Amino acid sequence: MAGRPAWWIMSRSSADPAPAPLGVCIAISTLGAGLSRIRLPAPSAGLTYMILLQCPEAADPGIRKALEARADTQVLALEGRGLSNSRNAALAQADQPLVLFADDDQTLDPAGIMALAQAFVQDPGLALAAGWRAERLSTRARAQRLTRLNSGRICAPEFMVRLAPIRAAGLRFDPEFGLGARYPVAEDYIFVCDILRAGLAGVSLPVVTGAHPHDSTGDNWSDPDLMRARQAMIRRAFGPWAPLMRLAYALKHRRRMGGVGRALGFIREVL
Predict the structure, then answer these.
(1) Is CATH 3.30.70.260 the classification given to domain 6-218?
(2) pLDDT tens-digit map of 254-266
(3) Contacts of 66 (CB under 8 A, 6+ apart)
(4) Which long-range contacts (CB under 8 A, 24 or more apart) does 149-155 make?
(5) Beta partners for 174?
(6) Residue 16: beta bridge partners?
(7) From start to end of the chain, where are the E strands?
(8) Could you say which DSSP state residue 261 is in?
(9) Three-class secondary structure of residue 87 per DSSP
(10) When you count CB atoms within 10 A of the terminal residue's CB, does the N or C end of the chain come out lower?
(11) Contact yes or no for 202/127 (Cβ under 8 A)
(12) If residue 12 lies in a helix (H) or strand (E), which one and from where to where?
């Protein structure tokens, strides 16, 4: 395996990963009553939880108290709304070297999360590592460097960042994207693109970090507002190359879009 990066070698091992010496903060975004949906795993060495609670006045105080009673968990009440604003609060407040982003209706796999954390131990130059949700892991998934072209599937709780280079580069989630914003999708992909555009390294590894058994906003291909948000995502990510990328995107997803007619409308930005 000479010449292979250490994270590639690690990802091919069938042995259980050793605990990563880098701590991981799992940043869980929620809104008001959504606090009741959170199901945290049992405490695990190296993992802490930061629950970012918007609209805290609507949350059940008993549930909040029970979560705050855990030594590995803090609940951070936030003003305002917007998923990107919540994630940015995690980037500002987290006190561990690594942060993994999650939502309140997802399940988490501590073993997979620690396996993903090992990539940062093996490669000190790594800023971003992406695993997979259990229901989406393909048998063809393999370790690979991330680019803007192969990062479109990445979303919470699949990706983890090293805080130091992210903060040093001044990178944040774009508040124009994500639930509660003008464009209610693609905040994770835009953030990944910004990381890679800044010259920081990212990798995808075939490890499961959690699951999301319910439909998500990104599964909706019939809402015109969401389709316009996808067009905005492509403009934001690819700039002058956006027309060509809209064509490629429409060809790839034409069945989800509802046929050739709607795909042509997407290409022309007419919806």
Answers:
(1) no
(2) 888 888 888 888 8
(3) none
(4) 150/204, 151/189, 151/192, 151/193, 151/196, 151/202, 151/204, 152/189, 154/130, 154/188, 154/189, 154/192, 154/204, 155/188, 155/189, 155/216, 155/218
(5) none
(6) none
(7) 24-31, 47-54, 73-78, 98-103, 107-108, 126-133, 144-145, 159-162, 201-211
(8) H
(9) helix
(10) N
(11) yes
(12) helix 6-12
Bigger pLDDT: 136 or 25? 25
> Can you give the pLDDT at residue 177?
96
Could you state, in order of their start, the residue ranges of all structural domains in the chain?
6-218, 220-268
Residues 67, 112: Cα–Cα separation, whole Å:
23
Q: How far is CA 38 from the centre of its chain?
A: 17
The 10 Å Cβ neighbour count of residue 67 is: 19
Rg of the chain on CA atoms, in Å: 19
CA gap 207, 205 in Å, rounded: 6
Instruction: Single out the residue of 105, 194, 97, 94 nearest to residue 154, CA to CA.
Output: 194
Taking each helix axis from N to C end, the angle separating 260-268 and 224-238, rounded to the nearest 10 degrees, works out to: 50
Q: Is 86 helix (H, G, I), strand (E, B) or coil?
A: helix
pLDDT at 163 over 90: yes
